[in-house]
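Could you join me in thinking about how sequence relates to backbone shape in a protein? Label the sequence line and the structure token line clearly, so we can match residues to local backbone shapes. Once you have written the record down, we can walk along the chain together.
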Amino acid sequence: MKKGVMRPGHVQIRVLDMDEALKHYVELLGLIEVDRDDQGRVYLKGWTEVDKFSVVLREADEAGMDFMGFKCLDESVLDNLHEGLKAFGCAVDEIPEGELKDCGRRLRFTAPSGHDFELYATKQQTGKWGVGNHNPEAWPRGLQGIKATRFDHCLLYGTDLDKTLDLFRDVLGFDLAEQVVTPDGKRVAQFLTASMKAHDVAFIDHPEPGKFHHASFFLETWEDVLRAADLISMTDTSIDIGPTRHGLTHGKTIYFFDPSGNRTEVFCGGDYHYPDHEPVTWDADKLGKAIFYHDRQLNERFLTALT
């Protein structure tokens, strides 16, 4: 049952060198810098996003993800979810309005997987960059690099997938869209959605909690993914794998690394999900084909390069 969570809203990523990170996220990926704050954080967005920002970069001594935030319909939904989180047993920190620039109050909690998540309902809306909402053009001029359209999802590695699913499904109203299951019935991967998308967040079973695998950004076409591959090579950016197709979700994809070692994905296409759809299930012995449909085998970096 839907509980009022709409979509992924933002992710805060730790980077080791801000200037180098901005070359990756702005000049290569094509996000737009929209603001900075007195903590030194830099705020970015994809050009189709109506909210002010979706990516926050924070310079730190260790790479990884600080938190992922989901936007809710309104403030009353936030209050209801606060009660649900407490009833589930989550400790909830109330982050005041303005701690992220032009963002309302946020509720932060730790999932059983070991990852920090946030819920919020209010953020300044600045509209689609360069085109607006009134008689908009097809796309804005002046975009850089890969021209990422929006922040789409994160893939996270962590512990206790069953309780994490209980939290996201029963408290937050997500659906299980796709899963990978072992012969003895253990779910080792789960793709969760609060919308019609194939996934808004995904989890892989891992013995160490709270690990970050990648943040993903949407492109419009397969040609855009191939162009991204060219730009990744032109800039001598470290590549993980691709261009290729997933079996899971069927998106067309390429993975590469920022200078701090955080993995980035850009992809196009992918399945859709309605609440009456049964979860798509992959057998664990088909995981190679599920992840990389063409090669049908996993590379070592994809499994072990985590931040």
User: Anything to note?
Assistant: The chain has a mean pLDDT of 93. DSSP finds six helices and 17 strands in the chain. Helices lie at 18-28, 75-88, 161-171, 222-234, 287-291, 300-304.
